[in-house]
Write a structure and sequence with these properties.
Bound molecules: 2-acetamido-2-deoxy-beta-D-glucopyranose, zinc ion
Structural class: alpha/beta
Radius of gyration: 28 Å
Number of helices: 14
Low-confidence stretches: 9-31, 443-461
Oligomer: single chain
Mean pLDDT: 90
Number of domains: 2
Helix content: 25-40%
Largest sheet: 8 strands, mixed
Strand order of the largest sheet: 6-5-7-1-8-17-2-18
Strand content: 15-25%
CATH class of the largest domain: Alpha Beta
Length: 461
Amino acid sequence: MLISTLLWLAVCCGFAVSEHRGNDTVKETTQMTHPLLLVSFDGFRADYLKMYPFPHLQKFFSDGVLVDYLTNVFSTKTFPNHYSLVTGLYAESHGILASRMYDPQTKKNFTTADSDPSWWDEATPIWVSVQNSGYKSAAAMWPGSDVKIHNSTATYFFPYNPKVTFQERLGNLTKWLKDDPAVRFAALYWEEPDHTGHMYGPDNTLEMTKVLKEVDNNIGLLMEQLQQAGLWGNINVVLTSDHGMAQCSQERLIKLDSCLNRTDYSVVDLTPVAAIIPLNNVSRVYSLLNKCHTHMRAYMKADIPQRLHYKDNERIQPIILVADEGWTIVQNGSLPRLGDHGYDNTLPSMHPFLAAHGPAFRKGYHLSSFNSVDIYPLMCHLLGIPAMPNNGSFVKVRCMLVSETCADLAVTVGIVIGVLIVLTTLTCLFRLMKSRGPSPSRPFARLELQDDDDDDDPLLD
Ligand SMILES: *[C@@H]1O[C@H](CO)[C@@H](O)[C@H](O)[C@H]1NC(C)=O
Ligand SMILES: *[C@@H]1O[C@H](CO)[C@@H](O)[C@H](O)[C@H]1NC(C)=O
Ligand SMILES: *[C@@H]1O[C@H](CO)[C@@H](O)[C@H](O)[C@H]1NC(C)=O
Ligand SMILES: *[C@@H]1O[C@H](CO)[C@@H](O)[C@H](O)[C@H]1NC(C)=O
Ligand SMILES: *[C@@H]1O[C@H](CO)[C@@H](O)[C@H](O)[C@H]1NC(C)=O
Ligand SMILES: *[C@@H]1O[C@H](CO)[C@@H](O)[C@H](O)[C@H]1NC(C)=O
Ligand SMILES: *[C@@H]1O[C@H](CO)[C@@H](O)[C@H](O)[C@H]1NC(C)=O
Ligand SMILES: *[C@@H]1O[C@H](CO)[C@@H](O)[C@H](O)[C@H]1NC(C)=O
Ligand SMILES: [Zn+2]
């Protein structure tokens, strides 16, 4: 009886753990009726949550999900990471590698004000897929949402203008969501706390306290507006960011002019990840850069570490320089800003947070981390649309969802071990009793002997 109960438990746990392997396309139709809002607060470093009070954000995730940090993509810059969030691709695969790029094929230069679709067309952002599935999308200043990627912008969008307030972005986005039920996906972008982080550096607690209070108030406003529009509780909301922020200093400058002549190279992007085109002897330029500074690494394109996923693209220049955390690369001059990002994506200071709330999400659930590229398959799942090929994994995020049965791994392992111990003990006890017990009457002795021959010997040995 006990054994069968325990076995039943073990089988159930096994099912719970493997259930997600089922067919994703047959999801409850109820999920299709909930729109999804993705919000990015630029430069919201994960550990700000441990250092500053966030009463509104706390309220948001206490009734939802909190993920301590995301491992974002290299380079940890705004444009590459915002495009990774909506494509699930590493920078080398979506083609937006930095805020300044050079394309050797078209011989064009990219800046963030560029609206030429060719920069973005290597990938398909989720809003385009949403529209291809027959729904509509809305975006408020999300990078790329005003560009005609694969011939279309978001259905509703603003041309980028940093002067438009958070209130206006939120107000208009909420109106689109409320007035047009065909809008399934909405994206909202806000420049803070990135802007303040660059200006004063994340170590300036006075300025950071002020701006993070504003950000938290904006989260409060967001919940309030969604409530007023009758959407709160019916809409799935994901709050996240693109990257963190590191403190820089005039004492941590790497001056290229002290290592080589400007006529030796041209620079496409400078700090903290420099993209360098050598103009004469490549190996000489590389060797000068390689020994330039102990806090800067130089890589020939072919030798860029695989783990950065920052190699396989035409727009990666022949030489890449990567500064250590908090160091700034300049040609010759003073520190451009007190805070910066773009550094190695394994650095905790570069990691953003994530919080989620809505009918699809568990309440009061906590996860330590996953990759920022995993958000894309999560969103496609929530929207019930097919995902484009991507570098994310739904398995890593699925436990955030109420629809997924998720056994706690520790509990599962504990139960399985417990079952094994009980089974072993019972078997031993059984054998012990059997070997001590009086022999049954003759007719059974033979049977028992056969039994022993067939099954028991291996167990006894
Ligand atoms: C999932 O189910 C749908 C509908 O039943 C079917 O068309 C599709 O082929 C299935 N996909 C997989 C991967 O099993
Ligand atoms: C993009 O739109 C233009 C006209 O606006 C059209 O000529 C072209 O065929 C479209 N391209 C694709 C791939 O849909
Ligand atoms: C937001 O909506 C209002 C009212 O329709 C409109 O006047 C305003 O221009 C919109 N804002 C932006 C940035 O488009
Ligand atoms: C760098 O700047 C300093 C001060 O502005 C100047 O004295 C020095 O000559 C410059 N070095 C180079 C290599 O341009
Ligand atoms: C830079 O150019 C000057 C003058 O042409 C030359 O003397 C010097 O050796 C060069 N420095 C390097 C590092 O190539
Ligand atoms: C692109 O940038 C490079 C390096 O900064 C510069 O030399 C080149 O003139 C620029 N090309 C165009 C078309 O602006
Ligand atoms: C390039 O520079 C290296 C030294 O760094 C030198 O050995 C080599 O001869 C140079 N090649 C050319 C073509 O100048
Ligand atoms: C990322 O995904 C793209 C699209 O499927 C694929 O081409 C690329 O090889 C993937 N990158 C890695 C490192 O797996
Ligand atoms: Zn940013």
